[in-house]
Amino acid sequence: MTGRTRDPDYVAPDYIQPMELDPSGNVVVVPDERSTGPHPSGEPAGEVETPDPVPAPRRWAVRLLVGSAAVLVALAVGYDTVDLVRRAFDTSMVLGIGAAALAAGTVVGAFGVVAGELRSLRRLRQIDGLRQDAEHLRAAGTHGEAERYAGAVASLYRDRSDLAPQLTSLKDHLSDAHDDREVVRMVDLQLLQDIDRRAYQLVLRASRDTAIATALSPAALLDVAIVLWRNLKLVREVASLYGARPGYVGGLKLLRRMLGNIAIAGVAESGNHLVAEALGSTLAASLSARVGQGVINGLLTARVGLTAMHLCRPLAYDETNRPSLKRIRRELLSVPKQVL
Amino acid sequence: MPPSPFRDLTNLGGRAFDRVGELTDRMLDGNLRIGVTGLRRSGKTVFTTALIDNLLHADRLPFLDVVATGRFIAARMEPQPDQAVPRFDYETQIARLTAPDPAWPNNTKVTSQARVAIRYMPGSLLKRRLRGVTRLNLDIIDYPGEWLLDLPLLDRTYAEWSRETLALSRRAPRDALAAEWLAYLSNRDPSGPAEEAVARRAAELYTNYLLACRASDQLLSLIQPGRFVEPGELIGAPVLAFCPLPEPAARAGRHTLWSMMEERFEAYKTNVVRRFFAEHFARLDRQIVLVDVLGALNAGPAALADMQTSLSATLESFHHGRSSWLDRLLGGRIDRVLFAATKADHIPSNQHGNLRRLLDGLVAERRNAIRFEGAAVETMALAALKCTETVMAEHQGRQLSCVRGIPLGRTEPTVLYPGEIPDDHRLLDRDGIRKLNFLDFRPPTLAGRHGRGLPNIRLDQALEFLVGDFLS
């Protein structure tokens, strides 16, 4: 088809003339085209949003030590196992087969666990990558590249029956007219805010649990155990809610990163400050130390939970929707009343 | 002749009386008047229809906070407060747009008003405790865009206006259209006796000239006075029998042609323009200015300049500024203004950013003035009714972003590459314009199916900006 030119003596244009193309020709509706497009941010830029304050030096000696020790232990255990199986066969055929089967089961199980952990770690990394993509998209304000991001986030929650209505409405509302910033915002509004609400409830419950349990527990050592166990459980719950489904290693890793993050972000304050914050000085004085301790532990759990929400969300919070401690704090302040 | 101050005072008295009734209304319920401002063919009627339709269905407004957070309960149309103004015929408009053979609305001939009542849950805990379910009444008026251009007349005397209009009509591309009228004027003496027949004939020729301006493919916007082309209920009234005259050398005495025309011009200002303004625009809370940037681009640089002048002149008449709660109660100032480039669906969506920036540049001066007065200003590219979809098409080995839709007057969809619009109007020289070609598209077939409301582009964000804080 020729272009519609209003001026016939115009030659060699450096632009493409407005024209009508053949609608039956090679035409692709944009969202489909985008989903196969190139990666929006190019190279994922590594861990940008949580820089290590002190870069850890690569200590090859430690690596060598740990690596060799691990191989040595594996070798010893393997050698012993093989020895055990052989001796069992010597004693009786049945016993031998049983021992061999158990050994095989152990190996297969170990592989399964390791594979699962690796998968969950990869999923965590994937969510990190998504968060970075979203930041790039938000900053760039381009057009046509966020479909891929939206697709990736949607596929993260594909098998979740509880999120089916949200996913449907996200798909309904996205159109070819939205630019990247709008697509990212749409994912936030239609999909993630619902998850946020539920995660907030989880955090609220966990911090109440910790507060009451610490207040009632008789021994300090028990406190530590309760807080650790409840925090780890909370982190895993929150992460699963956001689709990260971390394994044990993943959960620990998250918890570790989170504690680091709390310190870096200055989220945690000194104990004194926390007491004052939680109770006000006169009230604190009038309450028993144990209850105060409970409230502080509850607040700590809440902070861990909120940080977990930050770290597991495929999209960073902006100023408007950042979850706040306010409601949790109010809730926790009613704990002393309930306990006393 | 400046208007008498007493006339203003009586006007004020009448308005104050009106407001006492409205005041109680405002105290009990949230009322919000939205001024949909736009020159002719900027899509006011379609915008109003789409706005009402989308509020009634509330299923295509993901970025309207009250809907996104699930606090929206329902909306419906209610009888409007002004009994004397016709009701906006939403049902007919929506039926036309969603018919199996859809059509755009005809030229708007008269003013009409619509009220949409929205029931919602307040977002803040305190408000929810205090009031529970709250309601907000949105009042929107629709009117012929031609009338809007009368507003700048309020600040002009007859002599000033005559001079400007005559100068404009002698410049290209208007000179050809005005030839007959100018020829007639050159044979008449403004300081001659006031003859009704001469006045009528001159006004008739002037009206023909204005009609020709309106019909020209140059999309000339500056057509004053607006009632000459859209008389509404004033057909044949003597107040419309005047036209600009060359200023007489000596001061014209009484009973001359000049003084008769001047009297009629002043009467037009007082009885027609001032009344229209007082009834519909003086008490606006929020304003959206619809600008058909693409139409002007299509028509050429002259049309774009013309549109810029008209818009800027029109907007001077409104009171902008931050409003306190007292202002809001009395309805004084417009504290949010949205400039919207309409018909954004005529270009592929990756150019929406450029369209918005282009509009930004066009209205920069007015925008800064309004912002200076304290009102919030925003610009946006939107489409009240989305008629096309963005597709990628291959052309000589290059991927082009195109729009696919059914052009007006055809039955088969086409894929159009409209060219790349620049992000600043200064980049548009005579040559630049030729790189662009926008087609008018038909409304999509069965647009309102599944009961979801009309498909739109950024109508929700426009609403969020205009009324979002009232629905929080």
Automatic annotation (TrEMBL), chain A:
Transmembrane segments: 60-79, 91-115
Subcellular localization(s) per the UniProt record: Cell inner membrane
Location of the region described as Disordered in the Swiss-Prot/TrEMBL record: 1-54
InterPro entries: DUF697, UPF0283
Domain of life: Bacteria
Pfam family, one: DUF697
Membrane topology (UniProt): Multi-pass membrane protein
Keywords for the protein's UniProt record, in alphabetical order: Cell inner membrane, Cell membrane, Membrane, Transmembrane, Transmembrane helix
Principal subcellular localisation of the protein: membrane
Record keyword Membrane present: yes
Keyword Cell inner membrane tagged: yes
GO cellular component: plasma membrane
Stored PANTHER family: UPF0283 MEMBRANE PROTEIN YCJF
Family: Belongs to the UPF0283 family.
Identification of the protein by name: TIGR01620 family protein
Lineage: Bacteria, Pseudomonadati, Pseudomonadota, Alphaproteobacteria, Rhodospirillales
Automatic annotation (TrEMBL), chain B:
Pfam families given in the database record: DUF463
Alphabetized InterPro entries for the sequence: YcjX-like
Highest taxon of source: Bacteria
PANTHER family recorded: ATPASE, ATPASE-RELATED
Protein name: YcjX family protein
